[in-house]
Design a protein that fits this description.
Number of strands: 7
Shape: globular
Strand order of the largest sheet: 3-2-1-4-5-7-6
Bound molecules: S-adenosylmethionine
Helix content: 40-55%
CATH superfamily of the largest domain: Vaccinia Virus protein VP39
CATH topology of the largest domain: Rossmann fold
CATH class of the largest domain: Alpha Beta
CATH architecture of the largest domain: 3-Layer(aba) Sandwich
Structural class: alpha/beta
Order of helices and strands: HHHEHEHEEHEHHHEHE
Distance between the termini: 42 Å
Largest sheet: 7 strands, mixed
Length: 285
């Protein structure tokens, strides 16, 4: 049976799995590690630098929620009046603080939760959060907090996993599920599963068949089998929930269809239809 999921589980998972760091084979927190990570990230998510640039951060107080290695933080911090970053984990707070320091950038980096932000009301002109709020137990609390800390008229930019995508319907719900059943069948016949398939099979042994249910399985198919919370949303439910807290969505667009890494322009077009990362831009009314 799947138990209710707690913020402590989220913290523990991300503390042990500094987001994206496993793609880089250099010593963690070395200068070369950060250089390689930025190169990797801004090649794969090539849409991010122009999106941040278009936010015109000069003279703005910026808050980023959920930092990982802090690559985006370096872009936000570069031109803004002030930059504040917050993350649930010691690991990401350290990683981002060091990242900024190595590039001689300023920032106030703190540990805390998006569900309970340790900032005064009306503190920021821009709040950004990329790939974070779908990992927390109660996303509604985070929208309430974003609204509280934004100045009236301030802007937000939030990226969340979206259901209207190839990744959700075809890759996760169809292919991964069938492939896992096949891997389990092979395992029964004596073959040893590898990588994520092994972790999935171990999880099924621990939690039972409910792990494979329509609702539960996707949580384990985005950031690794041991990630407990990775919600995937419909656009309308997010727009309505943001609106409930006075956060009016003015634009949304999908990105990230990484099967065509070598053709970034084509990737952008396909991602617009099939992408998994939906950005929501808007203002606090
Ligand atoms: C998938 S990573 C994304 C990091 C970065 N924004 C990026 O796109 O690479 C998720 C990050 O969000 C953080 N996180 C998850 N839940 C959070 C919460 N409730 N409050 C603050 N940070 C949270 C995790 O610790 C982790 O560093």
């Amino acid at each position: 049976m799947i138990q209710e999921k707690k913020i402590e589980q989220v913290e523990s998972f991300w503390n042990e799995n500094l987001c994206g760091s496993h793609f880089i084979d250099k010593e963690k927190f070395s200068e070369q590690f950060y250089t390689d990570y930025r190169a990797y990230r801004f090649k794969k998510e090539h849409h991010i630098p122009p999106i941040i640039e278009a936010m015109n951060t000069a003279n703005k107080d910026v808050l980023e929620i959920g930092l990982g290695v802090g690559a985006d933080a370096t872009l936000w911090a570069k031109n803004s009046k002030s930059f504040t970053g917050i993350d649930l984990t010691e690991e990401a707070v350290y990683a981002t603080g060091r990242h900024l320091e190595l590039l001689n950038l300023k920032g106030n980096i703190v540990k805390g939760s998006a569900e309970n932000l340790p900032f005064e009301d009306n503190s920021f002109d821009i709040v950004s959060s990329h790939g974070v709020l779908h990992h927390t137990p109660n996303i509604e609390n985070t929208f309430k907090e974003v609204s509280r800390v934004l100045k009236p008229g301030g802007s937000f930019i939030i990226m969340l996993y979206t259901k209207d995508s190839f990744n959700y319907w075809v890759r996760i719900q169809f292919y991964f599920r069938l492939r896992l059943l096949f891997e389990m069948f092979k395992h029964k016949l004596g073959s040893q599963p590898k990588g994520w398939w092994k972790e999935h099979i171990d999880n099924i042994k621990k939690t039972g068949w409910s792990y494979l249910s329509w609702e539960e399985f996707p949580h384990h198919c985005t950031d690794g089998p041991n990630c407990d919370i990775a919600n995937i949303y419909y656009k309308k439910e997010i727009i309505d929930l943001l609106q409930k807290y006075g956060l009016k969505v003015t634009n949304t667009k999908k990105y990230h269809f990484p099967v065509l890494k070598r053709f970034p322009k084509l990737e952008l077009i396909l991602a617009n239809y099939f992408g998994f990362f939906r950005f929501y831009w808007g203002v606090k009314e």
